Amino acid sequence: MNGPLVSLGADAGVCVDGVCAIPEAAPKLTLISFPTCPYVQRAVIALRERGVEYEVIHVDLANKPDWFLQISPLGKVPVLKIERAGEKPVILFESTVILQYLDETLPGQRLFPEDALDRARQRAWVEYAGSVLGELWKLVQARDEAGFTEARTALIARLQPLEAEVAGPFFAGAEFSAVDAVFAPAFRQLDALETVRHLGVTDDLPKLQAWRQALAARPSVAGAVPPDFLDLYLGRLRAAGSYALTAN
Ligand SMILES: N[C@@H](CCC(=O)N[C@@H](CS)C(=O)NCC(=O)O)C(=O)O
After folding, report:
1. What is the pLDDT of residues 117-149, one digit of tens each?
2. 124 by DSSP, 3-state: which?
3. Ligand 1 center from residue 76 Cα (angstroms)
4. Contact status, residue 201 vs residue 155, Cβ threshold 8 Å
5. To test ligand 1's pocket by mutation, which of 32, 34, 39 has the most ligand atoms within 8 angstroms of CB?
6. Which of 73, 178, 196, 213 has a CA 20 to 30 Å removed from the CA of 203?
7. Order of strands, edge to edge, in the sheet holding 79-83?
8. Going from the N-terminus, what domains does the chain have, and what CATH number goes with each?
9. What is the rounded CA–CA span in Å between residue 148 and residue 200?
């Protein structure tokens, strides 16, 4: 993934009366990652939407290296290392913060809207995506049918409010936005689980069903995980005894 960095973004040179400041070199971006992490995918999707170069370093979360623990206050991925010429590297953690930083600094079409109210609304649903991931986590953690059924019902209830919000084909309409970037990894998990068991959690939510499909087809989303994602994700759940992987 090494290559020339092309981003100028918000650091691009400004011209006043025909005199332009020399643009700063784009920072080198390194994403500290775990191959199946949905929070990491948020950052990857934002980077891929803007077509900039970045490096990826995967860490073993079961055996976190010291260098990682030193830079990640919560011991979690994603972490984004930003190296600007002549400055000390800066570390960002928390996927939503990384998403916003990338959105504000990379060149190209922004994921968060210009209008403050639209932007606030997007932030609210970005936050909500975290709670959907939380329900999904409970679903895959269930070890028996009763736990699975309860978690499935809770997940459907959490997805339901979105049905009235999705404009289609993407969350806010024709343009891919921040809310799309954060829900796509959750839907990817659903798609992966449904290669084994039909969960049907969006069967009665036609707009969500179409949204899932539109997101899965988006190149930035499709390419946001390693090619062996399915095996890695399902393999980890199988090893943990997830009831969700019991075929129905
Ligand atoms: N709120 C964090 C959540 C990140 C998170 O939970 N990452 C998981 C992997 S998907 C992690 O690093 N877990 C390691 C641990 O908790 O020890 C974010 O949005 O970045």
Report:
1. 999 999 999 999 999 999 999 999 999 999 999
2. helix
3. 4
4. yes
5. 39
6. 178
7. 55-58, 28-33, 79-83, 90-93
8. 9-105 (3.40.30.10), 116-245 (1.20.1050.10)
9. 13
- Taking each helix axis from N to C terminus, what angle separates 178-193 and 229-239, rounded to the nearest 10 degrees? 60
State the Cα–Cα distance between residues 134 and 15, nearest whole angstrom. 46
C-alpha to C-alpha distance for 218 and 234, rounded to whole angstroms: 22
Q: Identity (one letter) of the amino acid at 24?
A: E
Closest Cα to residue 34, out of 64, 5, 70?
A: 64
Query: What separation in Å is there between the alpha carbon of 39 and the centre of ligand 1?
Result: 7
The sign of the CA dihedral 66, 68, 70, 73 is negative
H or E segment and range at residue 220: helix 219-222
The verdict on pTM exceeding 0.85 is yes
- The 3-state DSSP class for residue 79 equals strand
Query: 241, 34, 42: which is closest to 130 by C-alpha?
Result: 42
> pLDDT (tens digit, 9 = 90+) per residue, 25-71?
889 999 999 999 999 999 999 999 999 999 999 999 999 999 999 99
Annotation marks residue 37 as catalytic: yes
